[in-house]
Amino acid sequence: MSQVSEARLQQYEEIAAHLRAAIRDGEYAPGEPLPSEAELCRRFETARGTVRQAMATLRNEGLISSGQGRRSRVLDTVPSQSFDGVISFTQWCVSSGITPGQQTQWVTRRPADAGLAAALDIPDRAPVVSVFRLRLMDGTPAMVERLNYPLEAGQHILSFDPDSGSIYQRLLDSGVDIDHATRTIDAVGATAEDAALLEVPEGTPLLRVRRRAFTGEGTPVESSDDRYLPDKASFTLNSIRGNNPSSVSMIHGEMAR
Amino acid sequence: MSQVSEARLQQYEEIAAHLRAAIRDGEYAPGEPLPSEAELCRRFETARGTVRQAMATLRNEGLISSGQGRRSRVLDTVPSQSFDGVISFTQWCVSSGITPGQQTQWVTRRPADAGLAAALDIPDRAPVVSVFRLRLMDGTPAMVERLNYPLEAGQHILSFDPDSGSIYQRLLDSGVDIDHATRTIDAVGATAEDAALLEVPEGTPLLRVRRRAFTGEGTPVESSDDRYLPDKASFTLNSIRGNNPSSVSMIHGEMAR
């Protein structure tokens, strides 16, 4: 719970924050039931509707079971991933206790081909800045990263040493607005280029994460393609019966970009 | 919005439901801003805090942008996936407009090996029911499915023709409680067995989805391994800055099961 926003929290949010902290601190262990609604009403001196809103919030986060017809229980925790960790390999590594690294192959300004122009919503052949890096986890090859930016955002990278750290941080520091992102996850075989950098045979299965990031106004600011060695990263998610629609969906082939 | 629960909806939930429907119906198109908070307060005759709760709910679902410092905009819609669609390939196909199919390779009762016993939280060598099927999308090979159940749940499948339809529906009809599930997504090469069924070369990259399903009390009722041809399925997700922790996380290799 951030200090800044605390004053504006709704009561149900405060209760959710208390319960979330109690779960994270192990006061309620995985598999254990939470206190009953009646008990929580007494403890927080509030109405049942407010307690139910707090429980619905925790369910949305995949922290507790459905509670349909019985007490909600704490689920095995899926570590949460911050927005920074979604966009930035560096941030994701740091929050996972891993030392990130990179070996930049090239940074280039070039005209966008048709596919990239469509992904970035810019005219064909408009200039883009592209970065190709091998990423390391604790010094070991883990991922090949292809980042592409329209020139307005990308110009901040042309004057940056991409071996010195996080491009994402550089963009934020330069005032680039990165508001939301869409990721598509699938599997792909290593190309000759991928294989040489990752030190595996060509065709080795890789976990591919394609990402488009947008400003608050919906203008694309990044189109990227990350390919992980399968023993280096996976995705995990909880789903709870009766929950609201989740923000992740499995998409059939014809619908995927 | 289900008819049953409508009477118990909080006001913010009603407003969220109205806005969700308006987005789904195209009244607010992707890229367009939602009305201002002041306008929504007037329209729904409610307080600003309530409108903010409704907006936070939509943001949690990946439907609108962060709104930090400006109006929230409608994002490109990620189709929502129901809990049924998470557990059941049959349900997922139907909701995607695809005709599901299956060719059962075998159904067997056997003793659990150590890995499966651990996943199902049962003693080593305790009996399990296992199903191995090729799954089809519109008549074409798409996925190899390995399902495993402890005997108490699995007994309902031994007396069922697995080529006749959904095992998940059979389990629900038999009163098996499936309350929540955890999925792990990664990439794997096709084994000889996978490759023969999917009609691709051995080692072809496949999108693997391993799933554990649990009762409301947290007892495992299923441990499964689905492997999709990469052109048949992918995962897509929205992430929004400043949002609550999402229920999906990228996990580094050592932490993944």
UniProtKB/TrEMBL annotation, chains A, B:
> Residue ranges of the HTH gntR-type domain?
9-77
Q: Which InterPro entries does this chain map to?
A: Bact_HTH_transcr_reg, Chorismate_lyase_/UTRA_dom_sf, Tscrpt_reg_HTH_GntR, UTRA, WH-like_DNA-bd_sf, WH_DNA-bd_sf
Pfam families membership: GntR, UTRA
Q: What GO molecular function annotations does the UniProt record carry, in alphabetical order?
A: DNA binding; DNA-binding transcription factor activity
> What keywords is this UniProt entry annotated with?
DNA-binding, Transcription, Transcription regulation
**Please, one GO biological process term?**
negative regulation of DNA-templated transcription
Q: PROSITE patterns per the record? A: HTH_GNTR (PS50949)
Q: What is this protein called?
A: HTH gntR-type domain-containing protein
